[in-house]
Amino acid sequence: MNGNLTKRAWNSGGQDGWTGEFGSLANALHIDRVAPGDGEVQISWRLNAKGEGDRAPLVIEATLQPEGGESVIKRFDAGAGYGNATISNLKNGIDYRLHLTWITQDGSNDPVVGPVRLFRCGHVPGTIVNYIHPEDRTYDFSGRSTASPSIVKLPDGRLVVSHDVFWMEAGQNLSMIFSSDDNGRAWRFINYLSPCFWGKLFVHCERLYMLGTSTEYGDLLIGCSEDGGNTWSAPTILMKGGTRETGGPHKAPMPVIVHRNRIWTSIDYGAWKSGGHRTGMLSAPIEADLLDSASWTVTPFLPYDPQWPGAISGGSLPNLLEGNAVVAPDGRLAVIPRYQTIGGLPSHGRTIVLYADAEHPDAPLVFGKTIDFHGNMSKFTVQFDERSQKYWSLVSRVTGANAGQRNVLALVRSSDMEHWEVVRDVLNYEDNGWPENDKQVGFQYADWIADGDDLLFVSRTALNGAHNFHDANYITFHRVPSFRDQAATGGLEIR
């Protein structure tokens, strides 16, 4: 796709240690997962000091300092350099400072002290995959907020979730990988990927792939893992990047589908600062080497046209981005994008369908139609479900005057990809009567898979003292049992 492509090392590190040069991640003792829930926190750690992991027995001392209180020390067996623990009987709604100290029981080594991590306990729906406190500087080179969740199920049943680390105008170049081998009941950290941002996990020919960018509007990259996400290849550059000012490749964890013997996914080009985004499709033959850039074809990028029939009038920088590749009922290949309609008429509830030419993957997209759609103002994942013969999505439904509201996540469906109905809200902060409001709480950017009778999803969740609704502090995992049957009766249960 680009004749001047190179490979660079994709820095990654799992239980064997982080090899990058990014701030406190290179520290000898590092907390790689923090998950504060209702009155407790789960933590996991790694010891990276060379040779120290061979000494035993090892002990980890966890020092917790609650806001306005005295420090408390908890002790745990450290194993051979990697471990996890749950600390209970904590207070909700206050900030804690936490650091670990590694020692030997016989005092034969100098203590190894890890960097401080911050957290705040509170009730959280679902299961916590990961958490970053908005004032935690551990990942400051990339950001301070959890973002862009992606989920896949591997052939062996393992669930793998990724998210990147975001902060406005920060480096935005780190993704974190987690896995669950018990259907999502428990999660563990397995890897960092850097540079990697806006990443989408997908499985093809029983291999796990990551399609992302090196940073915001950076190089478009693809790499793969042969062992369930524990180790990764060097990535291939599929498209050279730009900057926030000039524009470059833009994406999110959008669906990767197979249609007419090709893999397809949407890709944008542009930037908010350069006037918005243009929409395209990226594809490769299913039998091709996906790590060979020559395998991939990209369409020309289609700019938004305010003269399209049914387009909103006015608005603050209306444009399309984060499109869903999906096959329409008539067999055509479509893109259903997020439609930036804030400030326009109407300000929400509408999106646009574009069509690609599946027989000519280098042909430009064309305008198809404008449709009514709940939750167009935030990224959503649309997928066709073979069993129900319906299209499904999880969307941030707007219930009030704030068109940018993201604290009500709704399950929606359609039989024809054009007329959509709300089945039920799956996460509705308004129902709980909690003190935070729609400026502070978000259930957003949900990525999901159908798993037998159930729907599994991950949410970029802002709750319990997030910086704001947009800059989330959690990635949460949720299961909707028997979603097809319960949707028909309205008895939807969320876990």
TrEMBL record:
<protein>
    <submittedName>
        <fullName>Exo-alpha-sialidase</fullName>
    </submittedName>
</protein>
<dbReference type="InterPro" id="IPR036278">
    <property type="entry name" value="Sialidase_sf"/>
</dbReference>
